Amino acid sequence: MSARRRLDLLAFMPFRLNRLAAEFSQTLAADYARFGIDIPEWRVLATLGQHAEARSAQYVVRCTRTHKSRISRAVSHLVDRGLVARDPGEEGGREIMLRLTPQGRAVYEELVPLLLHREQAVMACLTAEEAATLGLLLGKLEGAFGLLRCGE
């Protein structure tokens, strides 16, 4: 009988990336929780906030890799709070388009500097060169999965 291969979970790259992403998200969540929004709601605001024009909920799902039901609930809550508006799509209104309201844009503009500051504080453990290399490597991994660059 051959020896079984064992998986060292703490060395397994998918686990490490997931665990790190969860910690980073929780660290940032403290900032947007002050505005009464959660992680999926922030993802909607952040995705829409990068664009002047409206985007579909499906676009938000593709960009954030968040399940469509979570995005749908987040959008509904943001609409109820007056932070996001739904507009009919172009081709007969079949696809609903989403945009930030002026109130939503104000929340986005207030949150961005806070989150960038928090990101900078976490990343301070890396040199500028290490941070640049990490960004390059993450970009390569994202490319390997064909992930959208939704801010462009």
UniProtKB/TrEMBL annotation:
GO terms for molecular function: DNA-binding transcription factor activity. Gene3D superfamilies: Winged helix-like DNA-binding domain superfamily/Winged helix DNA-binding domain. It comes from the Bacteria. GO terms for biological process: response to stress. PROSITE patterns: HTH_MARR_2. Residues 1-143 form the HTH marR-type domain. SUPFAM superfamilies: Winged helix' DNA-binding domain. This is Transcriptional regulator MarR. It comes from Acidisphaera rubrifaciens HS-AP3.
